[in-house]
Amino acid sequence: MLAIDVELLRKEFQVQQSRGGLKGAFQDLFHREYKHVTAVKDISFQIPKGEICGYIGENGAGKSTTIKMLTGILVPTSGRIKVNGFVPFKEREKFVAEIGVVFGQRSQLWWDIGVVESFQLLKKVYRVSEADYKKRLDELVDRLQLADLLSRPVRKLSLGQRMRCELAASLIHNPAILFLDEPTIGLDIVVKTEIREFLKSLNQRYETTILLTTHDLQDIEALCSRVIMLDDGRIIYDGGLEELKAKWGKGKEVVLQFEHPITLPRLQELTSGLDVAWQLENELSAKVFIPYERANVSEVLGRVVGVLQIQDIKINETNTDDIVREIYKAGSADVKRPEETKQPEGAFTHA
């Protein structure tokens, strides 16, 4: 069953262009000039029920515009949307009862009243029964550690505390689909980890579908098996995170610390026939670069560990941020970058 079904979705805006100077401002009073902007350009994707999908892109790529159309805030210029079986901008009352939304830089909580009073107001908005509300609130308070925050006004909460409360507010009515737009922006690593763990457990327990937009790619790595990447209003990648790494990652670098002195020819001899590259750092330390799809870590280590005494092993993988940056440079994830066959910088020597 599909939670989200989008076909040839498009959103266009008319943006006023202001002319400079006093003369320009005077002209704008009588004759305004507009620029035509297409924020989302005929995108199509489907998200099955129960999936956590990352929706990523640079500023201005069209992420937030898409989320606003999927939540019914904006009406598409053209295309088709179905979210949990509803057309968001047409069936508003029924539709909003099925979704939860968290915008990282906007609050759905009332600023000057206690957190629990905001929850009670949302209970009435969503027409949640008293029994369901109490059961749901008890669970959210326990899982998100909100007991000490319920009586505080929202304005007196730290950013991390407020975001935990925002998450709880979006889940009071137990929605089938949760839209998260930059939910961890500005948070410290401890709070980010807590929120990620909560979202994973929410998905596993209730099969809640989650669409997550973020600039923090660690959120994507921690939560998402699938990534949709947007650039200039178009989808340039839609697939698994591991497939993205395999196609665009340079490979893995393994650093080995040996018990006894070792030579480069000996390491090359042990991995003969494998497409790997060695670099000797000193007589007790060496690096080996293992390209994706040409060799694997277990095979390399199997040959070395069985013969030489190893003191320590460290595996470094291509950072997801670097991969995404390379894809944006290329303009599409379908075309591999020209330099992908090059070995990494440094004096590596092939075995």
From TrEMBL:
KW Transport (keyword) present: yes
UniProt xrefs under Pfam families: ABC_tran
CDD domains per the UniProt record, alphabetical: ABC_NatA_like
Keywords associated with the record: ATP-binding, Nucleotide-binding, Transport
SMART domains for this protein: AAA
Ranges for domain ABC transporter: 24-257
InterPro entries assigned: AAA+_ATPase, ABC_transporter-like_ATP-bd, ABC_transporter_ATP-binding, P-loop_NTPase
Superkingdom classification of source: Bacteria
GO molecular function: ATP binding; ATP hydrolysis activity
Protein's name in the database: ATP-binding cassette domain-containing protein
Organism, as annotated: Paenibacillus silvestris
